[in-house]
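Much of what follows relies on a compact textual record of a protein's fold. A record is reproduced here so that you can trace the correspondence yourselves:

. . .
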Amino acid sequence: MNNNRIIKVNDEIQKETAEIIRGELKDPRIGRLVSVVRVETTRDLKFCKIYVSVFGNGEEQKSAFEGIQSASGYIRSQLAKRLNLRATPELIFILDDSIEYGIRMSKLIDEVNKPSAEE
C-alpha cells in the first residue's frame, strides 16, 4: 500500500474515531475534552495506534482513558461500518499528553515574560 493511501486511511480513522468518541460513547468516565491527536496505521492495516489526549487532572485522564479502552471493540465495529476497508485494523489506544504539555509550557513562558513588580 502506498504512502498516500496510508495517510488518507489515517485521516479517515482519526476523523471517524473522534466523532464516535464525542458523539456516541455513553460512558460517564469519558468527558467532553477528549481529542484524537493522531493516528498511525501499519502498512498492512492490521494495527492502528490512536493517540488520544484527555484534558483534566491525572485521575480524570486515567478514568477517561480506561473508558475509551473499554469501548475499543465498539469503536472498531463502528469504523468497520463507516470505512471502506477490507479488514478493520486492531485499535491500540495511547494516552498522549502533548497538548497538556504545550499548555503547561505556554503558562511557564508567560510567567517568565511577565513584567515583575520591581520594574
